[in-house]
Amino acid sequence: MIDIHTHIIPDLDDGPPDMETSVGMGRIAAVEGITAIISTSHSKECSEVGFAGMRSRLNDVWVAWVEAGLDIRLELGVEIFLTPDTPADLKSGALWTLAGSDYVLVELPYQPWPAYAERALFDLQLAGYIPILAHPERYTAIQADPNLMYALAERGILSQVTAGALLSEHNSPIRRCAETLVRHNMVQFLSSDAHGITARKRMPVLQSAMKAVEALVGPEIAAAMVSSNPSHILSKKYLAPEAEPVTSRKWSIGRLFGK
């Protein structure tokens, strides 16, 4: 399994406070069967440290994990808070992609939906990048209308759901939205968004969430979300979304009965 959204570098953002905790995260990931991880610290801290500094910090993590007996591939990425300046920041090297690919992991404010969002995503695509929208289930605009994510997917924008959203670790609107997005093939990646070694901080665990996805759409799609789809990033191959729209009637009935 490959986890494309994690915070494993210590003493940086709101991830692990120290290397001991980071090593603990690696041990949990190994037990889960995770063989590769993309480190995606927040863009504010990444831009302050710079690419070379972040590469060095990730190498420190890799050394500590190897010394602890862990054999997990680590790649550098960043979770980018999307702004109209993001394409320019990527071009200048102030920010960077996932594992040296054309894929970029972006997040937005949970509410309200920014007026610049669609244009900024389009500009990323024009510049040759492939946007992956992090945790779309958390955005209130997508909770209210999942077809907002469908419209983005129709334009080639991918998305990543967080494992905890499918395991009742978030409130009901988030869980219902996550399940709806999964059922309609609007999500291509299942990731932990791990920040630590406790449930509150989110651990690098995917197995239980995979079972939840299997119950919704079957084992083949569940496996693709943690294996073959993320491998497209590491191998720098193109991945196209194949989303399905949610009919208004189905969505209103689903919300009524909490499905």
Write the layout of secondary structure elements.
Elements (H helix, E strand, L loop, with lengths): L1 E5 L12 H14 L3 E4 L3 H7 L1 H17 L5 E4 L2 E3 L4 H7 L10 E5 L9 H10 L3 E5 L5 H5 L2 H8 L3 E5 L9 H12 L5 E3 L15 H11 L1 H8 L1 H7 L13 H9 L3
Parallel strand pairs: 1-2, 2-3, 4-5, 5-6, 6-7, 7-8
Helicity range of the residues? 40-55%
Shape: globular
The total of helices stands at 12
Order of helices and strands: EHEHHEEHEHEHHEHEHHHH
Question: What features would you describe in this structure?
Answer:
The protein is built from twelve helices and eight strands. A five-stranded parallel β-sheet has the order 4-5-6-7-8, with helices on both faces. Strands 1-2-3 form a three-stranded parallel β-sheet, with helices on one face. With 259 residues, it is α/β, with parallel strands linked by helices. The radius of gyration is 17 Å and the shape is globular.
Provide tags for this entry.
259 residues, disordered C terminus, alpha/beta, 3-stranded parallel β-sheet, 8 strands, 44% helix, 5-stranded parallel β-sheet, 13% strand
In short:
The chain has 259 residues and is α/β, with parallel strands linked by helices.
